[in-house]
Amino acid sequence: MNKHRYLPAFGVGLLILGISLLAYFTALRQDYPAWSPAGLLGNAVESDHVDGHVYTITDNSNQMLSKMSRTVTVGDELITGDGRRYKVKSVHGFTARAEFTGMDREMLSYADEFDSLSLPAAEQYDWKNKPIAIYHTHSAESYVPTDGTESIPYKGGIFEVGDTLAAELRKKGAKVLHNKTPHEPRDKNAYYRSRRTAADLMKKNPAALIDVHRDGIPDPGYYTKEVAGDNVTQLRLVVGRQNPKMESNMEFAKKAMAFANKTHPGIVKEIFVARGNYNQDLMSSAMLIEVGTHTNSREEAEKGVALFAESIPVLLGVAGNQPGPGGYTTPAGTPSGWRTMAWIVAVVLLGGGLFLLISSGGLDKARERIKKFSGEITGLGAPAKKPGPDERNNRDNR
Asked: What is the DSSP letter of 42?
């Protein structure tokens, strides 16, 4: 009995299984985070966010760059309001050391672009057809000075910050969907629970998807700033780095920070690129914002988010490409698109090579098949051979 008799069938079975799994996860891509190369190579679980835990990020000179209650891991990045970019190289306990990697030229170019934009016209965009969607993964988050506690399950003070954001956007002529579905408890599975809410909002074809949070560091002064003549809380924008739309999410966040700080200097403190997905694979204009911390008053947080809200309609209306189906888009051929295509090609080639090896029954036989196939392809392009005298006579005698 030929030991390789069933190998071709086995190879075909593996191929069918792979295609079936791909189709399955594609069909359910809104209920589960989309696959990405980064998620394959590392833990794609969103970084923990524990009130009272303070991670401090310092540079090589031991100067503090940032602090947050969100867990900081090696590979995370920080882009400051003035465009300085850092990458976390080590983490020991609650102290992370980051290395300066240069000025973020893309963000600085956006800042220059908005400086020359005198009267941006948000009305260029049809808000009636594409609303801005707001939701809250950590729906219990609250502000101690105003709400009396840091956490109110199912009806946190963060909902009222979301209400203020929605109201300010409506003043600008935008249609807003503010979803207040609770997603308790506040654990590592919160983003999986809130994904269903985000997926439902996506059915309305929004122009942007904003998840509103607050930080959990004890120091209220870290976020307090006088902006537009009033004490408000600053915001942090968070981008998930284990997400296939990271590049377009980053572009959107950089433009948001550049334009918001042009209009109200200092309102956006920084962009933090964190481990995880944060449901940002759902669309290119998905955004996670942190409005102050739990020790800030909610009134200051509402003032801060109201100032930030002024930038969103203008940003979606005139900056970059116009939002198309599924939201804000980036040009074809972006680094994210090319990297995804490269991974697809690599997987196809690897799978094809494995199938050929299994179905052939060995490396030598696989080489023979490749040579035979190459010869057949070469023969297709060769000129037809004219029959000789003997061949013509045989054909005539028939």
From this structure: S
> In this structure, which amino acid lies at residue 230?
D
- What is the residue type of 251? E
Instruction: Sketch the domain layout of the chain as residue ranges.
Output: 55-331
- What is the spatial distance between Cα 172 and Cα 308, in angstroms, rounded to a whole number? 12
Homologous superfamily (CATH) for 55-331:
Zn-dependent exopeptidases (3.40.630.40)
pLDDT band at 319 (very low <50, low <70, confident <90, very high): very low
Tokens 């408890």 found at: 185
Element (H, E) at 97: strand 95-103
Parallel, antiparallel, or unpaired: how do β-strands 132-135 and 176-178 relate? parallel
Read off the pLDDT of residues 86-137 as tens digits, 9 standing for 90 and up: 999 999 999 999 999 999 999 999 988 887 765 444 444 454 568 999 999 9
CA dist list (Å): 295 to 101, 298, 316:
32, 9, 32
> What secondary structure does DSSP assign to 89-142, as a single string?
EEEETTEEEEEEEEE-HHHHHHHHHHHT-SS--GGGS-TTTSPEEEE-SSTTB-
Q: Do 200 and 171 contact (CB within 8 A), yes or no?
A: no
Overall average pLDDT of the 150-163 stretch: 97
d(CA 264, CA 241): 27
- How confident is the model over 3-36, as pLDDT tens digits? 555 555 555 556 666 665 554 444 444 555 554 4
Residue of 194, 214, 203 whose CA lies nearest to 283: 203
Task: Using alpha carbons, select from 8, 306, 337 the residue that is nearest to residue 166.
Answer: 306
Pairing outcome for strands 64-68 and 235-240: unpaired
> Contact at 8 Å (CB) between 225 and 234?
yes
What is the value of pTM for the model shown?
Answer: 0.74
The residues facing 238 across adjacent strands are: 272, 288
Structure tokens at 389: 């005298």
Q: Count CB-CB contacts under 10 A for residue 264.
A: 20
Torsions phi, psi for 225 (to 5 deg): -155, 145
- Reported as type and span, the H/E element at residue 22 is helix 7-27
pLDDT of residue 293: 98
**Rounded distance between C-alpha atoms, residue 138 and residue 133, angstroms:** 16
* Positive or negative torsion for Cα 136, 138, 140, 141: negative
Q: Look-up: residue for tokens 């696959």?
A: 35
Return the closest-CA partner of residue 297 out of 371, 200, 372, 230. 230
